[in-house]
Amino acid sequence: MKKFLAAAFLSALATIQPLRAAEEGRERAKDEALEQIGEIVDCAITSQHIKIESTANTILRIEKNGKETARFPLMGVRELVVIRCQGSGMGVTPRSESLGEGMQIRVITKRGDGHDVFSVSYTIPDETEHSVVSQTAKLPTLYSRKDMARDDRTQLGNLILTVEEKKGEQDPRSIRITEESFRLGEGPRSTLIAEINGDSPEARALVDALWKEHLASFPKEQRIHYGPDSGFTQIELIRGPERVVVGSWHTIEKTSPKLFASNSGLGILGDRTRAQALAAEPEAYRRFRASFDAILAAVTARKKP
């Protein structure tokens, strides 16, 4: 009996630990998102957690004032955390209290290999008499609102967030390159450098070729080559249901002829040439850099935002 109870306790503990780790990760992501929004002390804040089963064609679709304004891919996402902050001047970032009532929404998408944060801003029209709001954990609608005039017939504005499946489309092909940075008081910031979408046979063929040639250079244990609180370049590759994200800060070398990003961190070249320093690095790291630079060059040469 004692052995049975001990085994049951250990089994329960093994279940609790990953759940606790997942909860801690979720709370960290929420804190990051709130920090990114900025001043929220007098705002109404709500949040919801939603489990989803995404496919290669799952997207987050944003409609604002009757027009689709954004689509975000959700391939590989298993959980969504939606945070809404409403208050005076919240319709823009940074917040401007000289404006009327507004909202900042952050959608945190949780994957097995990390999380992304998508931002939505909305200013509530000044003449709004009342609003019809729906927020539910039942998909496809994450959040919707209609802002109505006094006559109760005129719609002054609307905001809709839905999770949808793209219909009748080929498996996605894309490569997206961004500069990622972190600034105290501002949180993480992502700047698009270049991208290729599989919107033509030529583009799809290029993504397939780069994927085939370079994927072996990015094993799971060789996909992150940057340190904490640092700027780095990120490459996101999507091919059908597969998604690979790699990041490196070695691109910072272009800002200084003396800097060198090794397999273990940033340092100074000293009396060495860059070629000599790189030749002394592990072969796996040299392959990583060569493939990273080849993809970066191919994408930026073909198409810029």
Describe it.
It is a single chain. The chain is an alpha+beta fold. The chain contains four helices and 16 strands. Strands 3-2-9-8-7 form a five-stranded antiparallel beta sheet, with no helix packed on it. A five-stranded mixed beta sheet has the order 11-10-13-14-12, with helices on both faces. A hairpin with a 4-residue loop joins strand 15 (259-261) and strand 16 (266-268).
How would you sum up the major sheet?
Answer: 5 strands, antiparallel
Number of helices: 4
Number of E-state strands: 16
Shape: elongated
What structural class is derived from the secondary structure elements? alpha+beta
Radius of gyration: 23 Å
- As residue ranges, the low-confidence spans are 1-22
> How far is it from the N-terminal to the C-terminal residue, by CA?
66 Å
Order of helices and strands: HEEEEEEEEEEEHEEEEEHH
Helix content: 10-25%
Mean pLDDT value = 81
Q: In what order do the strands lie side by side in the largest sheet?
A: 3-2-9-8-7
Strand content: 35-45%
Task: Identify the notable features of this structure and list them briefly.
five-stranded mixed sheet; disordered N terminus
Question: In brief, what are we looking at here?
Answer:
By secondary structure, the protein is of the alpha+beta class. The protein contains four helices and 16 strands. The model is unreliable at 1-22 (pLDDT under 50).
Topology summary:
Layout: H1 2-37, E1 44-51, E2 58-64, E3 67-73, E4 79-88, E5 101-111, E6 114-123, E7 130-135, E8 141-148, E9 155-165, E10 173-183, E11 187-197, H2 201-214, E12 224-225, E13 232-239, E14 242-248, E15 259-261, E16 266-268, H3 274-279, H4 283-302
Parallel strand pairs: 12-14
Antiparallel strand pairs: 1-4, 2-3, 2-9, 4-5, 5-6, 7-8, 8-9, 10-11, 10-13, 13-14, 15-16
